[in-house]
Design a protein that fits this description.
By secondary structure, the protein is an all-alpha fold. Helices cover 41% and strands 0% of the residues.
């Protein structure tokens, strides 16, 4: 009689309360932050009305006046994970 072979058990999801993706919407860094930091440092070192800081003030104003990029659509991955997780996990008894 040939030996019986056993199939390995199918992998199962761990028991999770929620299935979520952390921070799907990453905020874009503001390009004017570096210029503003330099301008504030210049004001702190030489006074608010210093003529040496005028170039930094102008570059900050041009940076702030540029058109802002369009807002990105909000990522809906967590909504779909919340909606589909019960179907993936299967029917379970609710413990009270």
């Amino acid at each position: 009689m040939p030996p019986k072979t056993t199939k390995p058990a199918a992998p199962r999801l761990p028991p999770l309360q929620k299935l979520r993706v952390r921070r799907p919407n990453q905020a874009q860094a503001n390009p004017c932050v570096g210029i503003m930091t330099s301008m504030l440092g210049c004001w702190a070192s030489s006074g608010y009305s210093a003529q040496g800081c005028m170039a930094l003030e102008q570059s900050l104003r041009t940076c702030m006046d540029q058109a802002k990029p369009e807002k990105q659509k909000k990522n809906t991955i967590n909504y779909h994970l919340m909606r589909l997780y019960p179907k993936i996990r299967g029917a379970r008894k609710i413990d009270k």
